[in-house]
């Protein structure tokens, strides 16, 4: 055909910088800019990416999500709307996943499940797929389709078998081509679509390989249009990439309706599912699971996952104290471990507590409570890789250090809540009653809190637990050791 003007396109990210550069100004790849000539009557599928991709997707999906016009307030129906109805998810892990989603899966929503490779995203979504497939009050009768761009259907099938998932209403498909996926599932009119992962799928017409920013964004947008137009919910897996956020779930957060992140330490079997964005509900939710041989299971006592095994032994060790912290809507009891070694070179080794925070607590213990830590090496650790960010944990850190230094164990069933000021005074922290109640429910017999917080509690006895208010560190030391 007749040619118009020459231009440049990056074969990695699809960027069109308008002139030649040695490295792409958008994605910094070297030598990926290729010339292309846009002609009016022929479209080059390899390079003229955007146009082709859009025309293919547009061929059976409307470009605009909703066709609407301004309407008078009084004409707008209120009360129950389409987002109030959710697909309930229960069974395999109780209602844990429903809760994180804000009460269930909203039809037509696009949900992104992000996390490090290997954390358990595929496992979770296979289980969610099985749960969705079994919901029988669902209006849509079709199957759930689980599409993987990473594994063959045999591999997924084997995994499902090991996890004792055996529903016929779950279809597996292996493909990386978004248009192919959408075309193939169309005749099934599925009740839900799962795509694992967004980094492995691509749009045919777009330049660049699967996983680059442009592909990841456009594929997500295409799936969003699909979800909105068909009212079929779509769940996407997104790997958090090594380099941080490039082409990872971060760039997609504003496109999708809800974002859940899965977290877990390598050496712990616990997995946290955190809602960081939810267009249809609260983000103050946290799900707690445990990875087992047969997939993820809900944890029955999630408050206690950051306590070490010693809490069930009879032996009592020195240098251990329990803090009470809040995360999302949950309360966690977190074990702090301290080790003071006298007569050594004064090493500080801190894990899970900010170094500046540890320094401050140690300084206050020396100056305001008379604990002679001067010639000690001090090691601090928070169990299971938990990062202590709340000031509410200060008092437990101080108590753990004192216990190790004095070589007196803290009796079992004692928890600490409180912030430490520079004068050694104990200060109030938010949601005292919620924390104290959580500790009492777990059968603890004593909870040490700042004296100033007593008023906010109303009572000093909770289910057989005594609450003890202390003005400062000295008082705490006197009453515990
Ligand atoms: P996977 O879901 O594949 O992680 P992701 O999709 O986030 O990359 O799970 C990874 C790990 O979980 C893998 O090392 C094996 C383990 N696992 C179990 O312990 N139990 C199970 O039932 C399954 C399916 C996996
Ligand atoms: Mg996976």
TrEMBL record:
Full protein: residues contained: 258 to 738 of 741
Organism: Acorus gramineus
Domain RecA family profile: from-to ranges: 86-240
Stated name of the protein: RecA family profile 1 domain-containing protein
Coiled coil (residue ranges): none
GO MF annotations, alphabetized: ATP binding; ATP-dependent DNA damage sensor activity; damaged DNA binding; hydrolase activity; zinc ion binding
Keyword flag Zinc: yes
A single GO BP: recombinational repair
Source domain of life: Eukaryota
Alphabetical keyword list: ATP-binding, DNA damage, DNA repair, DNA-binding, Hydrolase, Metal-binding, Nucleotide-binding, Stress response, Zinc, Zinc-finger
């Amino acid at each position: 055909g007749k040619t118009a003007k020459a231009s440049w396109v990056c074969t990695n990210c699809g960027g069109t910088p308008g002139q030649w550069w040695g490295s792409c100004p958008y994605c910094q790849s070297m030598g990926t800019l290729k010339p292309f000539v846009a002609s009016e009557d022929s479209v080059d599928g390899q390079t003229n990416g955007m146009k082709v991709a859009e025309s293919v997707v547009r061929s059976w999906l409307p470009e605009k999500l909703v066709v609407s016009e301004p309407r008078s307030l009084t004409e707008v129906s209120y009360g129950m709307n389409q987002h109030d109805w959710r697909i309930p998810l229960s069974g395999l892990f109780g209602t844990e996943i429903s809760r994180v989603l804000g009460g269930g899966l909203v039809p037509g929503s696009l949900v992104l499940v992000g996390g490090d490779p290997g954390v358990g995203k595929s496992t979770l979504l296979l289980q969610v797929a099985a749960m969705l497939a079994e919901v029988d009050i669902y209006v849509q009768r079709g199957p759930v389709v689980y599409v993987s761009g990473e594994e063959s259907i045999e591999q997924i099938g084997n995994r499902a078998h090991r996890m004792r998932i055996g529903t016929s209403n779950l279809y597996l498909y292996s493909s990386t081509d978004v248009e192919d996926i959408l075309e193939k599932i169309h005749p099934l009119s599925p009740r839900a679509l799962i795509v694992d992962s967004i980094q492995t799928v691509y749009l045919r017409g777009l330049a660049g390989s699967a996983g680059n920013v442009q592909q990841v964004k456009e594929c997500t947008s295409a799936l969003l249009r699909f979800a909105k137009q068909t009212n079929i919910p779509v769940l996407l897996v997104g790997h958090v990439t090594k380099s941080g956020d490039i082409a990872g779930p971060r760039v997609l957060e504003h496109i999708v309706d809800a974002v859940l992140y899965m977290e877990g330490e390598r050496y712990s079997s616990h997995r946290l599912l955190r809602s960081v964005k939810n267009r249809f509900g609260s983000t103050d939710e946290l799900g707690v699971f445990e990875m087992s041989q047969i997939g993820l299971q809900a944890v029955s006592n999630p408050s206690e996952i950051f306590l070490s095994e010693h809490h069930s032994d009879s032996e009592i060790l020195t240098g251990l104290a329990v803090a009470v912290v809040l995360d999302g809507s949950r309360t966690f009891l977190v074990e702090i471990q301290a080790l003071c070694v006298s007569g050594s070179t004064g090493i500080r080794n801190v894990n899970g507590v900010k170094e500046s925070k540890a320094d401050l607590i140690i300084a206050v213990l020396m100056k305001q409570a008379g604990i002679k830590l001067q010639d000690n090496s001090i090691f601090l650790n928070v169990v299971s890789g938990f990062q202590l960010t709340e000031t509410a944990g200060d008092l437990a850190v101080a108590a753990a250090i004192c216990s190790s230094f004095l070589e007196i164990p803290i009796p079992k069933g004692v928890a600490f809540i409180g912030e430490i000021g520079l004068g050694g005074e104990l200060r109030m922290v938010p949601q005292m009653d919620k924390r104290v109640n959580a500790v009492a429910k777990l059968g603890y017999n004593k909870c040490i809190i700042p004296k100033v917080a007593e008023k906010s509690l109303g009572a000093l006895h909770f289910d057989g637990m005594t609450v003890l208010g202390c003005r400062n560190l000295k008082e705490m030391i006197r009453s515990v050791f």
